[in-house]
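RECORD TYPE: inverse folding
INPUT: structure tokens
STRUCTURE:
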């Protein structure tokens, strides 16, 4: 891997992916996104991994799509490149993904953070969809996920003016889980990942699927899937172990079966 660094077990069952184009503020080139997709798919299939953390560095989570790479491209070039297919694959990852964000999370960077399931941010984190300033609009879900997270008027202002939103405001408006001091953002994200990784990986995946479905369906259909996944959890050994451990007043030992 050239543009990302992967640590398979930063904690038991927790993998860490670091975006690694520091000079370009982790601009999301096609090659970087392709490495990220391939790695996420590998980790999704690895039984030694239950939760994935994606981070950048202190200065930037990611400053957006690689603008230099997009320069000079026609609509047909962009259409045929079909770079968003990569994003569609990432959306299908079944294990939880936590974004650990410090510094810039702009354009595609903000969209990548929002594609993750949770966001832990440092107090220096800055979120934004500044595409409008270069004459384009968000293309990887920004208009939809930002609006769902922070509401129409705030999203509209950010998307139409390119205005940035600092971490404390992002927390206030429900874009992120929490803000921590800059020296703690990664450890806090890994801690949250480890907490989830200690639970039944089957139940965690079933739950993630249903929460995500709530964005794409109406209530009745979401409730039907929730019920199905609830019943499905009873087919796992982890469910038997979890219930037995509760009754026997001991810690459960979940195996992902
Ligand atoms: N693409 C390519 N290079 C970038 C990008 C970027 N998005 N952002 C920063 N860089 C490069 C700079 O060109 C500079 O390179 P060099 O040293 O060779 O000149 C280097 O990174 C450092 O950047 P700055 O000197 O500009 O650093 P500052 O601290 O002065 O400014 C900013 C930081 C404010 C983040 C500034 O760099 C900036 O405004 N960047 C662009 C932000 C932006 O507009 N992002 C949206 C891009 S469009 C987009 O994301 C579309 C999303 C849909 C597609 C998603 C598919 C992946």
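DESIGNED SEQUENCE:
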């Amino acid at each position: 891997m050239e543009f990302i660094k992967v640590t398979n077990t930063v904690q038991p069952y927790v993998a860490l992916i670091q975006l690694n184009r520091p000079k370009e503020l982790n601009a999301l080139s096609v090659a970087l996104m392709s490495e990220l997709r391939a790695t996420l798919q590998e980790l999704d299939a690895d039984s030694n991994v239950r939760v994935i953390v994606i981070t950048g560095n202190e200065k930037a989570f990611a400053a957006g799509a690689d603008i230099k790479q997009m320069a000079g491209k026609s609509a047909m070039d962009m259409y045929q490149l079909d770079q968003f297919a990569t994003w569609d694959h990432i959306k299908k990852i079944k294990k939880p993904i936590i974004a650990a964000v410090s510094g810039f999370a702009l354009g595609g960077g903000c969209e990548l953070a929002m594609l993750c399931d949770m966001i832990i941010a440092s107090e220096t984190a800055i979120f934004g969809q500044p595409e409008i300033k270069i004459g384009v609009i968000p293309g990887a879900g920004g208009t939809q996920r930002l609006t769902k997270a922070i509401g129409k008027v705030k999203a509209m202002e950010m998307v139409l003016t390119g205005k940035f939103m600092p971490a404390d405001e992002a927390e206030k408006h429900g874009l992120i889980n929490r803000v921590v001091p800059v020296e703690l953002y990664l450890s806090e994200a890994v801690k949250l990942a480890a907490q989830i990784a200690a639970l039944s990986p089957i139940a965690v995946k079933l739950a993630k699927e249903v929460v995500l479905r709530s964005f794409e369906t109406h209530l009745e259909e979401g409730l039907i899937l929730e019920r199905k996944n609830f019943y499905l959890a009873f087919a796992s050994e982890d469910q038997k172990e979890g219930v037995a451990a509760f009754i026997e007043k001991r810690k459960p030992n979940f195996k992902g079966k």
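NOTES: Residues 148 and 227 are 24 Å apart (CA to CA).
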